[in-house]
Design a protein that fits this description.
The structure holds 3 protein chains of 3 kinds. Chain A is an alpha+beta fold. Helix content of chain A is about 20%, strand content about 30%. Chain A folds into 2 domains: about 50-245 and about 375-420, no CATH class; about 245-370 and about 425-430, Sandwich (Immunoglobulin-like), CATH 2.60.40. Chain A has helices spanning about 1-25, 75-90, 125-130, 145-160, 215-225, 350-355, 380-385, 405-420, and strands spanning about 35, 50-55, 90-95, 100, 135-140, 165-175, 180-185, 190-195, 205-210, 235-240, 255-260, 260, 265-270, 275-280, 285-290, 300, 305-315, 320-325, 330-335, 345-350, 360-370, 375, 385, 400-405, 425-430. Chain B contains 5 helices and no strands. The two termini of chain B are about 15 Å apart. Chain C has 2 domains: about 1-90 and about 125-325, Tubulin/FtsZ, GTPase domain (Rossmann fold), CATH 3.40.50.1440; about 355-495, no CATH class. Chain C is about 45% helix and about 15% strand. Chain C contains 18 helices and 14 strands. Chain C has helices at about 10-25, 45-60, 95, 100-105, 105-115, 120, 135-145, 160-170, 190-205, 205-210, 245-265, 295-310, 315, 355-380, 390-395, 405-425, 465-475, 485-495, and strands at about 1-10, 35-40, 75-85, 175-185, 215-220, 225, 270-275, 280, 330, 340, 350, 430, 440, 445-450. Chain C has a 6-stranded parallel β-sheet, with helices on both faces. A two-stranded parallel sheet of chain C has the order 6-8. The longest helix of chain C has 28 residues, at about 355-380. The chains are: A alpha+beta, B mainly alpha, C alpha/beta. The interface of A and B includes residues 7, 253 and 289 of A.
Chain lengths: ~425, ~170, ~500
């Protein structure tokens, strides 16, 4: 009887084990009910339709672009803008001076006529206030601003666009000009400038394009596609991304690792954040990734020798990422890959025991970004710039350049650096419990 | 207990043993995987899904090989003359086959599975659990009476138990 | 109750041989001891030598502790000392025994001369009574020192002194002493001894006899073999038995018993066993060691008769019964009588002969085939023990180089030889169908055909193959607390041979 008792015990145990095996109960370690928030801005979703708002500088200083017919890219600008705009979505035109006024119907076509320019004050800051950041806003202007005016504009652009992970592009087009240019120099002199048919003397006008980076890039691409550059045209794109696709762990190749393994226990929606597990908490962990530097089209130049890295550990607390208060031994370095040109190796290392908080979901975010001196404007900005000295004489005045242009664009660059913090690469590790 | 009941019990013991060893292999292997899985490769979760299939196959193969010894000893290896009755050579050969399978089966399985990558430690784990513990322990405790002392070391364990039981009776 | 068995002459010795094996197989009704003695002037008689060899072996190894509640070696034997009582001295003739010289010329001497021929009187009696019961009767009457002429206790003549002591002790304790004599009625020693010894016993234990405390049974062996003396110079002029006279001798003897037993009521039970087909003896011998006839079914029946006598109540002894065999020319298991076992609680159970004996036969066969060939090598370590689980479980560490084990192994050889002779088809005209004919492959040493082991018993598929036996031996344990040592192993082996 006793013996049969043991037989029955073993039989029951056997079937329990079989049952466990079949149902897989207890075998899976699931922590899928924890929602891990992303630290990145929501990725731009490619919209089917983008509303385009064109704000046209209707001040007198813009008249001169309409006067010379030969080689004029400005006269048919309204139509071209409408064409590109309509290919993207609905296009609306506005004129501005001191205030912003919407234009109805085909009124915008009058921008090709000199008589339509009768505003005296260029208040771009008003335009910036009026723009809808969800739309693609295009400001057509000669960017003829004083330093003090422009600081206000730059501040607004920084807050409304760069800080919100949006982008700003400048398209400069050289155009024949015959007209007056106002507020030159500290004495606000007026000069008359006639470029004639000499393309070297053409004066630039600008389209400042503001909006979601994808929309801005889309516009630039369509503009290039639809408009063969008959006149000298330059482009500059300022955004938080220094490459067309910023390398993250979703796209980078992980070359080597130590004490770290890929895992999938958590529910991480943002694929730019990757989950990993640690094998031994007392040992040092290391991840080495590789990315290829492909500068963004029309972007600023990045000196790859002048980069800075930053790395930070955070912990998920009450559904929000918060910096840890642990002094860890985080280390993050970048170096060129000697075997492959244009490739760079990023190495992140840390000791989990010293760096991560136990029994919590931790995050390590490492960024490669250009240093202030390593992020430079393209040469054409300098070439098109004219300083605004005091007491400039007419013969000293160069109408083919834009006064303070360098300063304007520089301030935009700095705003972008400061607010958008453009990065070359992002490595975001999430370490589960 | 009569012989048939004992046979059923021994079969259950062998099956239970390999089931338990499979579970140990699964959990231990999962732990070992953390040491050799790279951050840039498959995730642990994906690896585990494929690994459990390998563990199941390995468990079944090792269990079947063990049952080759068991059923041979129970039903097929007959004794008619009192010579060459140990069959230890057969036991060793089957044991070696089992050990070989612990290497061959995962080797070929991994080749056919693009996701699953294993390290030498997994081979060692299989060798220890399925090759040595599984086969050896099963043959120590569950070899039919005719050949109960054939496995090396069985005499020390089973003879001691037997004499203890006889003394008790 | 005590059992006494006295074999007289060569035929008696052959019955003794069969009885020894039945004793070892546990065929006796109770666990009473069996006292055995043999009477034979032909001390070197081959039959006696063979049967006493098995008995002496059994006497040695019966000490094995096989535990309780098993028929194996159930009945212990006590051998008389000396075991063989020789009524004559060496190189004596009848004249010497009868002290003829003292009576020569007297009327007794003259009568003596009339009754015996000169040849009979002068033939040396070293090789028995040569088929002349008259010689034997006279010698035995003269020599059996059970009592003096005046009825007082005998002198220091063993083994009779001890025999008498034992019987009297039985009577004192209230037991019944059952004495069974067996011998041929057609030969010399048996024919002489059977009536003479019986009469002497009756006279010695007269009171006990009348009180029913001593019961006497007789197994009278009738002719069952024949021989042709070689017509050589070695035998010309000698006195020897002649098989042509067997039937006439038997007729005369039976007449004598018929009258005598009616008058004097000597035997309480008489068993007449013979065979109408006389088995030819291949080699004629006057006597001594060369006189060794093979075992015969008649011997076996003689032993069964002894057992029947021992197991029967006194009331049944006077019944007249026949035993026969179903098919002419063939003996099978169904022709053997059942055995009646008396339990400790007094209950009697009947067990078929076949069942008990079949298990015992398998037991001996299995020992001979599986154990004996490897035991010494295992004990000395020349063969690895793990291959033989039974050795590890029961015999490891035991000293098996003992006299008892040797005797047991010798006994197994005797048993197999006895079985082979019993079955022997060449010498018998009968078909003794107890074993499969090819089971015993050879003797000296005994070899068994392993493939026939399971079906070695005719008409039975025991299912106990060699492998099955090995399995049982390896898996079973001995639960009897009184079994120990080598005896425990034999007990287990015996139990494993049971048909389940």
């Amino acid at each position: 009887m006793m013996k049969w008792k043991w037989v029955s015990y073993i039989g029951v145990l056997f079937f329990i084990l079989v049952g466990l095996q079949l149902t897989g109960c207890g075998l899976s370690e699931s922590a899928n009910n924890i929602v891990v928030p992303s630290i990145f801005a929501q990725q731009d979703i490619k919209k089917e339709k983008v509303n385009v708002d064109v704000y046209w500088d209707a001040t007198y200083s813009m008249q001169g672009y309409t006067t010379i017919a030969s080689g004029n890219a400005y006269r048919n600008l309204p139509d071209r803008l409408e064409d590109v705009g309509n290919s993207m979505g609905d296009t609306k035109f506005f004129r501005f001076g001191e205030t912003v006024q919407p234009l109805e119907g085909r009124e915008h076509r009058k921008f090709s006529e000199a008589s339509f320019y009768n505003e005296t004050v260029t208040a771009i800051h008003t335009v910036i206030d009026s723009t809808d950041s969800d739309h693609l806003s295009i400001v057509v202007t000669d960017l003829f601003e004083s330093n003090s005016d422009w600081s206000n504009v730059a501040k607004k652009i920084k807050e409304k666009y760069f800080a919100q992970h949006l982008a700003v592009a400048i398209v400069g087009i050289k155009n024949p000009f015959n007209g007056d240019i106002f507020d030159v120099g500290l004495d606000n002199m007026k000069f008359n400038y006639n470029s004639g048919a000499d393309s070297n003397k053409y004066r630039p006008f600008y389209m400042m394009i503001l909006g979601h980076e994808n929309d801005v890039k889309e516009f630039l691409q369509r503009w290039k596609d639809k408009n063969a550059a008959s006149n000298e045209t330059q482009y500059l794109l300022l955004s938080e991304n220094l490459m067309d696709q910023v390398p993250t762990l979703a796209t980078m190749e992980i070359v080597d690792s130590k004490n770290v393994f890929a895992d999938e226990k958590l529910n991480i929606a943002d694929k730019r954040m990757k989950e990993f597990g640690i094998d031994a908490y007392g040992d040092q962990a290391m991840i080495m990734t590789r990315f290829t530097y492909k500068p963004v089209i029309d972007g600023c130049k990045v000196d790859m020798g002048k980069l800075k890295t930053s790395i930070q550990a955070q912990v998920l607390s009450d559904g929000v990422w918060q910096p840890t208060e642990i002094d860890g031994d985080l280390n993050f370095q970048i170096k060129e890959d000697n075997e492959r040109p244009d490739d760079y190796l990023l190495t992140m290392s840390f000791t989990p025991e010293k760096t991560l908080r136990k029994d919590s979901i931790n995050l390590i975010h490492a960024v490669v970004e250009p240093s202030y001196n390593g992020f430079t404007l393209p040469d054409w900005v300098r070439n098109w710039n004219m300083e605004n000295p005091a007491g400039v004489t007419p013969d000293q005045f160069d109408g083919s350049k834009t006064i303070n242009f360098m300063h304007l664009v520089q301030s935009l660059k700095e705003s972008a650096l400061d607010a958008a913090k453009p990065s070359l690469a992002n490595i975001t590790l999430v370490v589960s419990k | 207990m009569d012989r048939n009941k004992r046979t059923i019990l021994e079969i259950i013991v062998i099956l239970a043993m390999f089931l338990i060893l499979s579970m140990i292999a699964y959990f231990a292997g999962t732990g070992l995987a953390k040491t050799f899985l790279k951050a840039g490769g498959v995730t642990l979760g994906q690896w585990k899904d494929h690994y459990i299939a390998l563990v199941r196959i390995m468990g079944v193969v090792a269990c079947c090989i063990t049952f080759v010894w068991y059923f041979s000893a129970r039903f097929f290896l007959k004794i008619t003359y009192p010579v060459f009755v140990g069959k230890r050579t057969i036991w060793v050969i089957i044991g070696l086959l089992n050990l070989i399978s612990c290497v061959v089966v995962p080797f070929f399985y991994v080749r056919s599975d693009s996701i699953l990558k294993i390290d030498v430690t997994i081979y060692l784990l299989f060798l220890v659990l399925f090759g040595i513990l599984g086969y050896y322990a099963s043959s120590i405790f569950a070899t039919p009476a005719c050949y109960k002392y054939t496995p090396i070391g069985a005499k020390s364990i089973r003879a001691a138990k037997y004499k203890k039981r006889s003394l008790k009776e | 109750m005590s059992f006494y068995f006295i074999s007289i002459g060569g035929s008696g010795a052959k019955v003794l041989e069969s009885l020894t094996h039945l004793c070892a197989a546990g065929m006796f009704p109770t666990e009473e001891k069996l006292y055995v003695m043999a009477i034979d002037p032909d001390v070197g008689n081959g039959n006696l030598a063979r049967s006493s060899a098995a008995l002496h072996c059994y006497d040695s190894f019966q000490k094995f502790q096989t535990g309780s509640h098993t028929p194996l070696f159930k009945t212990k034997v006590e051998l008389a000392n000396p075991f063989v009582w020789n009524p004559t001295e060496h190189d004596k003739c009848l004249d010497d025994v009868m002290s003829y010289q003292a009576y020569k010329g007297t009327p007794i001497g003259d009568l003596y001369e009339v009754l015996y021929t000169k040849k009979e009187r002068s033939t040396l009696l070293n090789e028995g009574f040569r088929g002349h019961p008259s010689i034997g009767a006279a010698v035995m009457a003269k020599k059996v020192a059970l009592h003096d002429a005046d009825g007082t206790a005998a002198g220091d003549a063993e083994p009779w002194k001890h025999f008498k002591l034992l019987v009297n002790q039985d009577a004192k304790t209230g037991s019944v002493a059952k004495i069974f004599l067996t011998g041929s009625v057609f030969g010399g020693t048996g024919a002489a001894g059977m009536p003479t010894i019986a009469k002497l016993l009756q006279r010695t234990f007269k009171t006990l006899y009348e009180e029913g405390k001593v019961l006497l049974g007789g197994g009278l062996i009738l002719p069952y073999f024949s021989f042709s003396p070689a017509k050589t110079d070695a035998f010309s002029g000698q006195v020897y038995a002649s098989s042509e006279n067997f039937l006439t001798s038997t007729q005369a003897a039976l007449k004598y018993y018929s009258v005598k037993n009616k008058e004097e009521d000597i035997y309480h039970a008489m068993y007449f066993i013979g065979d109408n087909i006389l088995a030819p003896v291949q080699k004629f011998s006057v006597g001594s060691s060369s006189q060794e006839n093979n075992a015969h079914i008649v011997d076996f029946y003689g032993a069964l008769a002894a057992i029947d006598f021992f197991q029967s109540d006194v009331h049944k002894l006077k019944q007249c019964s026949y035993i026969t065999h179903a098919e002419d020319g063939r003996f099978s298991w169904s022709d053997l009588p059942n055995i009646v076992l008396k339990e400790e609680n007094g209950q009697q159970i009947t067990v078929p002969q076949k069942e008990r004996l079949a298990q015992y036969i398998r037991f001996v066969f299995s020992y001979v085939h599986l154990i004996k060939p490897v035991l010494k090598q295992l004990s000395s370590g020349r063969v690895k023990g793990y291959q033989y689980p039974w050795f590890i479980d029961y015999l490891e560490g035991l000293n098996i180089d003992t006299l008892e084990v040797k005797n047991f192994e010798e006994y197994t050889e005797c048993f197999v030889r006895w079985l082979l002779q019993l079955e022997g088809r060449e010498q018998h005209a009968r078909n003794i169908d107890l074993l499969h004919p090819m089971t015993i492959a050879s003797i000296n040493p005994a070899k068994i055909n392993a493939d026939l082991f399971a079906n070695c018993i005719t008409g039975e598929e025991s299912g106990v193959t060699i492998h099955e036996l090995w399995y049982r031996l390896s898996e079973s344990g001995c639960r009897n607390e009184y079994a120990d040592g080598f005896g425990k192993f034999l007990r287990v082996l015996y139990d494993c041979c049971e048909k389940r």
